[in-house]
What does this fold into?
Amino acid sequence: MSTVHKRYTLGCLPTDNPYLLDNWLPTDTEWTASTPDLEVIGEIPTDLHGVYLRNGHNQVHAPIGKYHPFDGDGMIHGMHFGGGKASYRNRFVRTTGFLAEQAAGESLWPGIIEPRRAVRRGWGSIGAMKDNAGTDVKVHAGRALAAMSQCSEPYRLDPITLETLGPDPSWARTLGERGICSHFQVDPRTGDMMFFNFGEHAPYFNYGVVDASNKLVHYEPIDLPHATWPHDLGMSENYCVIHDLSMFFDPEGLKKGQHRLKFHRDRPARFGVIPRFGTSGDVKWFEGQPCYILHLANTYEVGDEIVMDGAIQTNPVPDLGALPKDGYARMHALLSMDLQETRMHRWRFNMVTGQTTEEDLDDEVTEFSMISHSVKGKPNRYVYNALAKPEWKLDGLKKYDWKTGNSQRWEAPKGCYVSETPFAPRDNAVDEDDGYLVTYVTNLNSGKGECAIFDARDITPGPICRIILPGHIPMGAHACWTPQSALRVPPAA
It folds into this structure.
């Protein structure tokens, strides 16, 4: 039976903000549902055991200032699979900021666009935002871990019930107000979790490692000349790659309390290769063309080189001169992957010569790369990306085969949008693509969210199974797949 866990009154509506409408429309309900009460079109694979988690921003209260889609309250959507059955839950991440605003009945903190309007202490690299823990989610040491892109406290959750367990009791205190940034990386072979955080005051960047037993074993400041604005972290078998890119807050503006992101077109991007347990003095720095990077696909070692694949942006701050200062046209431009010139790209860092070589891997706008977790940090053959409309709507999937140079694609029906789509290996998988792709679908035609399952070997026919969920699912951020064997919970009934 589909049951309402809790229903909320959305004070953020009605609105003229496009990032609170249509595919971005927040949901007002936390659901608990399972098969056979959930409608299933097709058949749920019987050799699929694990959990699909996706984080995203789901605003409750009317925002303070102009709302940005990264501001909303963090909400995890989870599908638990086992033996041809499935169960669904969605729950808010109950951060300190979320609970405070629930008690107050209104927003207490501004978002990323207008941090100057803050009247009380906040969280994140800016120090003025609510900690929404709404960007990323991964499972480490048997528990889910959620964080936001501007750094937040490391919130643990039960990966099945999605109950918020609170900031990690083992090491959250050590990180203090810096917390942890989204896009922490988990090594599938060692269980180590590599992470970073950043801020506006020195040290501008910190790098750390939490081991498989959930013990903080390494935490080091990295010497940088200024405040930076990183988003992802490369991880190979023995190294991590730190990003000091060409887009960051104007240093002179920061001295005046202004937060204006600027693309420094004459400043090369810098990439710091650090041994997994290295210090600032161990970092070997490389330069590349001026750019910004949101998301990587994989990082691995080949001979003397560190190879890093991801989506490059060579125009991350488009020209806004002709756009009106009021309304949402400027925000739309700053979120347009088309205007940002986003495409798949490869960097090679030669550890012997110190040279960087680069090449484009595709000229189509795609983002939100996923690979099989089993090959993370090692050479991979396949990458699964989302097709991206200019307005940050993900309207299909593209599978890359780096060995053959071929690709596959599937375009969603009009009015339907996918989420970041992880690879889920089937039981006893043999090949790298022997399994499934799992994604949530925002269906504006029906008003009901869906969970869609694809055969990863051939995505062109579309989903082999669609599970119709009890309510709407807005567009989200990042997702992960975790096999049943890596969960500290009993198997699905």
The longest helix spans residues 96-104. The mean pLDDT is 95. The longest strand covers residues 292-302. The chain has one domain: 3-486.
